[in-house]
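Recap for those who missed Tuesday's class. We walked through two folding examples back to back. For each one, the amino acid string is listed first and its predicted structure tokens come directly after. Nothing is annotated here on purpose, so try labeling regions yourself before you check the end of the notes.
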Amino acid sequence: MVHSAYDSFELLHDCPTKIEAIGSHGAKLFLGGTDGSLRIYAPESSGFNHSLPSDHRSQTLELHKEPYVLERTLVGFSKKPLVSMEVSESRELLLSLSESIAFHRIPNLETIAVITKAKGANVYSWDDKRGFLCFARQKRVCIFRHDGGRGFVEVKEFSVPDVVKSLSWCGENICLGIRREYMILNATNGALSEVFPSGRIAPPLVVPLPSGELILGKDNIGILVDQNGKLLPEGRICWSEAPSVVVIHKPYAIALLPRYIEIRSLRAPYPLIQTIVLRNVNHLFQNKSAIVAALDNSVYGLFPVPIGAQIVQLTASGNFEEALALCKLLPPEDSSLRVAKEGSIHLRFAHYLFENGSYEEAMEQFLASQVDITYILSLYPSIVLPKSALVPEPEKLVEMNWDTSNLSRGSSGVSDDIEYSPPPQLSESDEIRESKKMSHNTLMALIKFLQKKRYSVIEKAAAEGTEEVVLDAYESNRHRRSNKGRGNSPISSGAREKAAILDTALLQALVLTGQSSSALELLKGLNYCDIKICEDFLQKRNYYAALLELYKCNSMHREALKLLQQLVEESKSDHVLGQKFRPEMIIEYLKALCGTDPMLVLEYSIPVLEKFPTQTIDLFLSGNIPADLVNSYLKQHAPNMQATYLELMLAMNENGISGNLQNEMVQIYLSEVLEWYSDLRAQQKWDEKVYSPTRKKLLSALESISGYSPESLLKRLPPDALYEERAILLGKMNQHELALSLYVHKLHVPELALSYCDRVYGNILHQHPLKSHSNIYLTLLQIYLNPRRTTKNFENRINNIVLSQTTGLAKVGLTTSHKGKGGRKKVAEIEGAEDSRYSHSGTDSGRSDAELDDPTEGGSDIMLDEILDLLSRRWERINGAQALKLLPRETKLQNLLPFLGPLLRKSSEASRNFSVINSLRQSENLQVKEELYNHRKTVVKIGSESICSLCNKKIGTSVFAVYPNGKTLVHFVCFRDAQSMKAVAKGTPLRKW
């Protein structure tokens, strides 16, 4: 026996006749004897001076747990012994089955109806709610309905395959237990459907449940089915023996077995609750308040033990699940006490399960007990909690149990206290218990518990934070002046403290169980982990990925970057660590900080800029960090990376770099080139035609970008070297003649001069499409015509150009006069560089330009090959007439064939094209004139029926106008008065006739 659910009490004994049927109404018992009499018994305390009709109070009373005495005997109540009886409390009727079925009015018990058709009936079922009666007679099933008065109306009658042994209403259907099987009878159309065979030992037994389902007996097994006969998933009740009667008294099912009465729970798996030894029990029926068992001459009452007392018994014996199920049956008025009692049982159940190794089930009970998180975490001493977390003391649990024990006494009268006593497992050594509580299974159970609690806790914490922000904003807006200098009133942060405890414990448990990905997910989302505790915990276990996320989610970016930089450095020597922490991770981390802390981004981007320049520059671009800020920071902290940054910036986003930065980049290149030049010059290894990588970058930058200042760069160039750089700078200052002179006379590379002319020609063509573009080539031609002459103070003139920034540049100009001898003289005076003065040592003997001039060279040989090459390669860009004027008279025409041949062909082709175009235009003019004449020949006939399209009046002899379509006619006056009207051809001029 698990616990005492019912107390057995003998209500009466020594009944004069054998009891054949039993029923109850209120506190009174109705006994039907073998002699056909009906005996009415009442509690001994009710006295003998109250007759049944006047004792109206008995209708509202329950069976008493005291001896019953005979109050009245109705002799000849039925002609034959009663088979069974039933009381309808709602209709105040007594239904009895003897030779037929009769209905008697309570309390006087006068007969109001006898169903003669029920003669020979052996079983019946009464549906008190609908007032329907069904009974079985041999192989017939009849249905009657109570009409609400004194009569019954027959509804249906159906035939069945065999004699019915048991039946019961199930909704609007009837479940029949015939000899060897169960069937469902449709009460509307009589359709039968088989359920399953009945048992071989015991007869069929149909027991209705309050929920509408049925229990169908199959020997010692009770099978649960729904109203349609389908098996329910709840399973089956297994009795010790085959029962003859089963009654339902929630939450138990009471079965009458041959040797005793067996009580089982109606909750799966339907465990045995209690057995009551009563032999020779013939009848068992349910009353509101008790179960009544009738023997041959005595009656016993099985009175339920108060729910509170049963809960006490079950809890004390460790049957916590049964105790919790009984808590649901406590009266609604004790709801608060019921919650407290359930919490206490859940808590005891949780401790029992935890100490016995059922950790997940224990956490489910802890969760149901609504106990504070800190209480559960007190079971895990190794889990470090924030200092604000107050672990509940053991007395708290005792106090809770004391309150629930008061409930058990108040609701059941039992004085047993449900005091918490430590389980036997607590006798283990502290070391074993500690290792047990920190095992993998215990931690996994804790994780599931915390994850279930987390949603509601985090939601409250977030709402609390939002409320605080709103209140702070409101207060600062309302009392901005009066509260200036004062702090905001603190808001209770209980929810956030609880969230901090939960998340801190959850993170530790996840790491201890090796769930690294889950720990990272926790830190990536909204969390309230305690920074100090989690930082120490993760550092001790070298769990750096989670530590980085901890810093990141708490905006501790400097600490995170410092750690990440340290890990990247260590990864160079540690291969395993190098696979986890790569320099690219620093760039990825910095991306999110560009908009909030650009200086921090610059500080920690320096180490990765050298190794991953492209990704780092892309970081600066995507983060919209000002280029000037990046450049100034690099100039101060990493000057060696400044040029790399500016190069990549220019390559990735040409428009994103300002003129100042372009100028600074060129200045950096020039400084490096000058340093390189000085070193070679000191070693006497300088060669103008040698190009270092930096010099190549300088030349490319000078040609491709335009944001620098050529004047300032020209000042820094040495006077006797870097002529190509000087030429580019002079070109940027529009000093084309000087630039070309350097290419021809200093560098001796005509190809560079020709390329220079091509660039200038392309730029002018792009900027001024309609302007003449051939002057630059004529300028180069003039330089070739005077190859050995040079002007005095050539270098001084270049310096004068540099110094004249404020007064404007000296306009040597692209438009050189080509007429007469003055043009040649001007070119001769400007151009010409002395080849003999160029020295590989870079030094002159201290002589001036004037001293080096040879006075005997009045006119040197022209560079005829270069001239002819220029004319043949760029004939289409050179004005032929002007070029021929500049050439010497002794130039042979045979040498000019590569120039004049295509030039003349082009001229003649152009002449022919112009002639054809002129002819086409004349032809087109004639066609237009012909079309005009045709239009003017249009004939319009005006008759007596011709009317105006505007006023709908006849035209007659009035002045009229006609539209170009030749059909629409209007008065000219109408047209003039309605000029805004839309005609067939809008805006088309009209002809006046």
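Example two. Treat it independently of the first, because the proteins are unrelated.
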Amino acid sequence: MFRDSLRLLYHDANASSSLETNKPSMVTLLREFDSPGVFPASARLDRSLKTTNGFTMKVWDAWKYPAFAFNKASSLALDVISHHVWGPRRKSWGIEMTILSSLMRDVSRHSALADIAMVRKAMCIGGLVPLPSDALVTPVTFRVRKRNLRGMLEACDAMEDEKRELSGEWIIGKRLWQSLQSDYKSTRATGEGASYVDQTKNDYDSRKGQSRVILYIHGGAYYSSSAAAQRMLTIPLSKYTNARVFAIDYRLAPETIFPGQLHDVVSTYFRLTDDLRVPPENLVVAGDSAGGALGLALLLYLRDNGYTLPGGAILFSPWVDLTLSCESWDTNAAYDIIPTPGPTAHLHPVIMYLGDGLEQYITHPYASPLFGKFDGLPPMLIQCGEAEVLHDEIVLLSHKASLAGVQVQLETYEDAVHVFQAFPFLNVATTAFISCREFLRHRLPHIQRHSPQVLDNDTEICLENDTDNDNVRVVRGDGVETNSGWQEVQDQM
């Protein structure tokens, strides 16, 4: 499978010229995103939309459900026949992608048939895409501390009484977990006071290679999904990169609106760095779709307020422009698996996320990072699909960051859709995770501002206490949690 990998390491505006002479240059396109507060002329979002009072389905509307099912079944049948007779809609697609694309196409036009609860339940249906095997998962709940946050989050922080809780989960690949257990036993055998760096060079290099921690922020258009629902991404990410992954369950819209989600992510970052003592240079922020945008917002917030930045970022199809201004929202709508938001406010992700603050925040860099300035941000690996509706804004993001001096590795995968890494039946998903491994383990240590450290004994004890307890469980390839509790896991592993 062909992969177009662009390493955007130049800082010359002339290098941003368009590949097609009939299209505006990258520099010209980026001018629309230079001024936060100014709504782009090409925006597809109707700013007059207001939040609604919720889902109201009347009895006489019940006929719409079988009608929707019939139309979808007919469309699916035609697409399957067309796939076998005339070939797939994209040349490299297998029948699985044809079916997925057919099921999701134009679904937003029928958003009146569902409510938030129905969408969230649908997002959590398991079994359609088998989860990767060989992973240990430890759910974690922690209290949100008041941390004297600065800037936009000062008011959010002041409201905390240290009673609110957030949840998340640690994901550790089986091989990494076994290696860590060996290290823990070795350290205990040499005495509790022994340092992890007081070892042979081979041990030192090995432990340095497994000292990375990834903070993962799930997608779901800000109003759905969860850390557990995104294990098809976090499990292979841990396995391929040999890193411990912590995935956070931030509060969802519309119950919580911007910047509440960013506050949860920032609080989680400081829990890792301050409470668990993970050095920031050892941390990598990762996320998909809306989670990728939250990851960028985290970086911008930390930089703007003088906090220490993490070592790097890995972003899968980040949604960085809530104004929906880029052309690929139209050109790729027929192929992608995420539908264009509907014409009404009902279940519109932008309306639910920003609420009554839409006019104020729609172009704020923490909500739409494409409008931000990227000077001083850490190196990034950004992956997107050639056939996804976010393609153009992701390419613009990569160029804008590179022109600001950020080291960016942009990878565009042929015929791939939004967050294609979540579909293990695609060969490009494996290719993408291999690239994550190469970036994190071999390239990032040489280009990040401060080299990652070997975690000291105190940090390892904090992480061990957080990950190895009676909440740990083994996740099988079909998603079934086969064992739970520390002793059962120890016996199986």
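Answers for example two:
The chain has 17 helices and eleven strands.
Residues 64-85 form the longest helix (22 residues).
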